[in-house]
Specification:
Layout lengths: L10 E2 L12 E5 L3 E6 L8 E4 H13 L2
Antiparallel strand pairs: 1-2, 2-3, 3-4
Length: 65
């Protein structure tokens, strides 16, 4: 299995602002995990969550709108 932090796997939100989108986080998915990193410091720490937990987190955010 490919690790979710391979450089080609990172995606940035379309809401990350103008220019290089320096005001956002980036995410990378694998079948079992989702990784999150700061777009301003991509070589620093990466947080990795089980895919189910990250999906539940996103759903909770959607329902709070």
């Amino acid at each position: 299995m490919r690790h979710p932090t391979a450089p080609d796997d990172w995606r940035r939100s379309s809401h990350s602002g103008g220019g290089d989108g320096n005001n956002c986080v980036e995410i990378a998915h694998s079948p079992t995990h989702t990784a999150v990193r700061d777009s301003k410091a991509p070589t620093r720490a990466t947080l990795t969550f089980p895919a189910e937990a990250f999906a539940a987190f996103l759903e909770a955010l959607r329902t709070r709108r």
